[in-house]
């Protein structure tokens, strides 16, 4: 039973162990500027992929909340957004490290960096919006609306920004994509599992946080009801 | 259609009765332009087209946020409740967007004429029709996205800060495209160059409009 329910967690652990092992020790193609830092592909790129997947899931749960009005969906939605922010920050950190090694600048003027920064701004604004409401239902409804709106605007942004300035990233602005010649099949065998593994880890973190949130809610209810019971007894 | 027309008329009357708000906005844009002019302490026609353009759109962005932020605060909640018993929420948001678009056009027109008056126009072959068309698309996009955000912010306390924080990232894609097209217009480039951007602008406008109309019914209920 537990195996049936939790197989994906085991899968995440297996995949990530594999990714870390092969990613750090496996053979990688030699590239002029990248050198050994090419291994960051296994960690940096999947972080972005899974961040967008988590944001999308957050939006789907926001839509579900608006349609069905169950507070549980709102909890899931906000925790997915939180995990997406965490992944975004980690992605920035790994990217910044990588950029300072290869491009000699921790924050070059690059559309991908900028669009991610704007995305982060949106989700921080989302969190601030949430904190400005006391009423639970109102908070859930209004922040769900902003969540949907923000994600819908974020998507065109990803397409627009790369046109404004040339990107240093592979595959943009005349730079060859990784897929063209420097990404061999052995690397793909690590990269794609890594995307799946990271996403699963993200879902796992979210699940744990949703549970903590539910427990805290229940605890609040208990704490609220106890003094009231006293006062009626007196 | 009839209802929307009546609602738009109501918005105009409301604005006319509270003229200080309208005058305040007009003064806001004029004084912002003048502050920028003095801050650069330049004689006319000294800014590069790029700076000229970016400054103009930033002024317009701040004016838009200030002007549209009040579109839900202006009416008492009791009165809003009364509208909701009469008509569908879609009509309310559409009428507000149309009104805000017109308001933005007035403000942008005034801002543009005063801006060119003090700052001058950089470059020679400016493509005026393209620039004005771009201004129109900008007004629609600003009005559509900011009206919904104003609705969201008006539900919370401290809505002025929230309005700015929520709207900056949301209008950014729109703003970037607008700046791009108006730069092309300033440089007098051939129109075929900006076709791609105009298409994107139209697409963003449509997305934002559709979302506002779709999401507003959920917003007013709370």
UniProtKB/TrEMBL annotation, chain B:
One of its GO terms (molecular function) is heme transmembrane transporter activity. It is a multi-pass membrane protein. InterPro entries: Cyt_c_biogenesis_CcmB. It is found in: Membrane. Pfam families: CcmB. One of its GO terms (cellular component) is membrane. Its main location: membrane. This is ABC transporter permease. It comes from Larkinella knui. The lineage of its organism: Bacteria, Pseudomonadati, Bacteroidota, Cytophagia, Cytophagales.
């Amino acid at each position: 039973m537990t195996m049936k329910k939790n197989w994906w967690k085991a899968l995440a652990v297996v995949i990530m162990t594999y990714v870390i092992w092969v990613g750090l020790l496996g053979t990688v193609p030699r590239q002029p500027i990248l050198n050994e830092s090419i291994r960051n592909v296994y960690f940096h790129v999947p972080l972005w992929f899974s961040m967008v997947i988590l944001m999308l899931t957050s939006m789907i749960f926001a839509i579900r909340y608006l349609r069905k009005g169950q507070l549980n969906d709102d909890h899931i939605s906000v925790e997915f957004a939180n995990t997406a922010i965490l992944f975004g920050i980690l992605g920035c950190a790994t990217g910044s490290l990588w950029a300072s090694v290869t491009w000699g600048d921790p924050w070059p003027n690059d559309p991908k960096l900028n669009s991610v920064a704007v995305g982060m701004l949106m989700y921080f604004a989302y969190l601030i919006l949430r904190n400005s409401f006391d009423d639970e239902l109102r908070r859930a409804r209004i922040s769900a609306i902003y969540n949907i709106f923000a994600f819908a605007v974020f998507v065109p942004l990803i397409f627009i920004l790369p046109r404004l300035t040339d990107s240093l990233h592979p595959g943009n602005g005349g730079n060859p994509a990784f897929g063209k010649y420097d990404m061999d099949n052995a690397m793909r065998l690590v990269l794609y599992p890594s995307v799946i593994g990271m996403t699963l880890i993200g879902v796992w973190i979210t699940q744990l946080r949703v549970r903590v949130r539910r427990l805290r809610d229940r605890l609040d209810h208990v704490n609220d009801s106890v003094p009231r019971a006293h006062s009626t007894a007196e | 259609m009839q209802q929307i027309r009546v609602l738009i008329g109501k918005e105009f009357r409301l604005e006319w009765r509270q003229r200080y708000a309208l005058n305040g906005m007009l003064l806001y844009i004029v004084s912002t332009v003048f502050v920028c002019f003095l801050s650069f302490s330049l004689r006319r026609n000294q800014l590069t087209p790029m700076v000229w353009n970016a400054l103009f759109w930033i002024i317009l962005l701040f004016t838009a946020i200030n002007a549209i932020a009040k579109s839900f605060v202006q009416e008492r909640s009791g009165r809003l409740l009364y509208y909701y018993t009469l008509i569908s929420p879609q009509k309310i948001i559409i009428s507000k967007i149309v009104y805000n678009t017109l308001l933005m056009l007035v403000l942008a027109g005034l801002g543009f004429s005063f801006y060119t008056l003090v700052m001058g126009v950089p470059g020679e072959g400016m493509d005026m029709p393209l620039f004005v068309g771009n201004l129109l698309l900008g007004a629609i996009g600003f009005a559509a996205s900011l009206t919904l955000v104003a609705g969201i912010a008006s539900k919370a306390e401290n809505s002025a800060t929230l309005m700015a924080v929520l709207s900056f990232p949301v209008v950014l894609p729109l703003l970037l495209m607008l700046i791009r097209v108006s730069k092309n217009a300033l440089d007098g480039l051939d129109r075929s160059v900006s076709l791609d951007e105009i298409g994107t602008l139209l697409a963003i406008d449509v997305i934002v409009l559709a979302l506002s109309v779709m999401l507003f019914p959920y917003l007013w209920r709370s």
